[in-house]
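Holo prediction. Input below; ligand is (2R)-2,3-dihydroxypropanoic acid.
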Amino acid sequence: MSDKPRILVTRKLPDAVEARLQRDYQPMLNPDDRLYSTDEIIEMAANADAILPCHTEKFPAEVIARLPENVRAIANFSVGHDHVDLDAAKAKGIIVTNTPDVLSDATAEIAILCMLGAARRAYEGERMIRAQQWKDWSPTFMLGAQTTGKRFGVVGMGRVGQVAAKRARGFDMEVHYYNRSRLSADLECGATYHETVEDLLPHCDVLSIHCPATPQTTGLLNRERIALLPDGAIVVNTGRGGVVDDEALIEALTSGKVFAAGLDVFNGEPDHIHPKYRELDNVFLLPHLGSATVETRNGMGFRALDNLDAIFAGREPGDRIA
Ligand code: DGY
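Structure of the complex:
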């Protein structure tokens, strides 16, 4: 019998990542990429030394409590960790890791895509051509909002926020940001720091959300805060859906207070996103594609495996969050 550690892998991972898993571990793979129920995860965990889950599997305190004692680690295939109760894991002695850095470029690309898709009415234009409804070109046809030279406001100037800001500078945008702590001048790159979200919002022609989902950021973009945005602002969310109060954003999109939104993440995704988003023309919607490139998904998998390698070699994993 092999003495390699047994890893419960909850989702189908890229081939290169699964090949490394097969080489170095005894993985329980999920070739059909079926979404496991919590009960199934608990049952399979009986034969696992660690779990390698995605954000699609939830580990609140009550699930952590049910995990068998043999589970030493949860090595997430994600940078976000709002699906794991870190305090409960820590209390049970389970090491938790995530995959920062490797997805910053890909997610920032999607933020810029969401910004442009929303600003330049990409969804309406696409739909018009596919439905054979494009009849004419005229000087006043489908006018969007120009982003070049405008103000790009970032909530959450972590790794992804910083790359998104850098890309926005490529459009000659002036960067403003709110972060729990101010960045050093070399990371700030001339961006203007605002001490509160309220201070930041009036300076956002485009507001791009990059903060993690925490109890403190739940519903952060609410009615009162949206009112502080300039009229006709654009809202971009590639962080987590929970940061946005959907009713408030939909109201602002309907009234025109917000010109358009580009959203890659949603409350209740994938099945229970607010139905009104599907009806609005001025939203550009993507199905949580932030990190969805081959390079990045390989990078995430390898990073999760680097963390597991360290844990099972008795070393401190690089990306320990609990
Ligand atoms: C992340 O890594 O947090 C992405 O949203 C995918 O889970």
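Residues 106 and 292 are 7 Å apart (CA to CA). That is the main takeaway for now.
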